[in-house]
């Protein structure tokens, strides 16, 4: 039995799993939260001890890693983390290979989650898809021709900073009307708060959910209020759904993939949100361009399952190499 | 010597070329205009006689075809032509294979032009690129991982109907602010005309170029007037450049390709147009996302050279198959 070690370095929590290669249904995994003021070194130590605990003395044959930030997938070096300092140019693949004596493969979380959904989730059997996560931020990962497409610098899938409305509100990145500015959880909350400030007579439900402290409004509260018919909440979610629909319809025209898979906390916002996405995406794509938009199947385990897939691919390459060595074909 | 037959079925003109496989510098080609009220059958006959003339009794070993409309590249069947009737479901590949006794490969003009620029033009040595043609319409073709990316239904590359400004003017397709609506030649002319109607005191130069008949204004006249400093013309070209810049920057974030190659008559509109594209594309893409935007190298011969590349690939596959038959590896 070939043992696979799968690791998911998140912004605020880390998860690890050990699974037998070929196993598709069970993942014995463990997750821990980062301590306050995390640093690369402490995060790495937390993850190593988590992995050792799960391995319990056994040796993995391959390691797959999802990292919450830009990675050079070829060398397995982390470029940086947007949340945690000390990760700059960390040779994560090399460190793990030395630590566990097995080959490793590292990629960023959106690409790895896309791979997870493709191999074990809502993308099974589809050879081209865009996975979009809508949560604190908005990001994406591609599968084209059954393989991850990372772009020339590993930056492909940055759908959060695609401009959908050039006259829209200013995003953290400095541009106007980025998808992330219109559809991410914190911005949905902020838009709602701004509207409530403008209309002190409206949004009774929202005000009670946040105990009249508008700064405490979250995307989740907006979803709850929308389900119960709150107009301001509904408007905020429909704006987010509209922005996602425009982005998805544009991408359908550009790349013509089979499926869009949407994950992340905001995608739990209910029918009104999903209806807006479907309606606007369909209206934005050309009539001849067909596609499906479906919810992610693996939830927050997508990166961990994707890490399993990365490790399976490493094993496959190793076995291919061993096979050709036996046949004496390798020089 | 293996002879290649390359065919380019355009909307208003057809071109054919005969070239020796492996030849990269000379294309003995001929082009003819379609008669008025063209039909699929007459277009096909024109092309066949053009090809026979160039072949002069010799037999091609492979045929590559660029077709000005949607094609099922797998079967080599034309879906339809937007300009000429009678093409619906025409088995073009099969017809040509029967006629010339050689294997053929057919794809739509934007994909084939992208392949031409990739193999023989401004895309040589680049493994991922988007070719964009800006002319009567706006279209595109992808090369990803050194191969054409056509999408699941052959519809990839439809950048002309990507929405760049949801509050913009209405496009022929019914949506607002499509790239084609803002950047194609006829729409640049129309925008200019609308502005001239609003400002009867402005645009002396443009008015003289069209002999005071505003309906006769063309994209070319707008370019000429802009070069000589006409403000209305400059504004129209800067709007087109802005729209292309937004679209390119968004695509860079989404797909992270190495190069954007721009061809078509509108791209000859001068520095102001190109500067707007470069400036806005750079501002729209994330700072970490790098790319180049360059003019096409092959001009209106890109589809013909792309057809040569399609035929070269057919030859390569044939030779691969012959090779494995000799080795007895094929079942």
Automatic annotation (TrEMBL), chains A, B:
GO molecular function terms listed in the Swiss-Prot or TrEMBL record: glucokinase activity
Cell membrane keyword on record: no
Cross-referenced Pfam families: ROK
Gene3D superfamilies: 3.30.420.40
Keywords: Kinase, Transferase
Keyword Kinase appears in the UniProt entry: yes
Superkingdom: Bacteria
Catalytic activity, EC: 2.7.1.2
Family: Belongs to the ROK (NagC/XylR) family.
Name assigned to this protein: Glucokinase
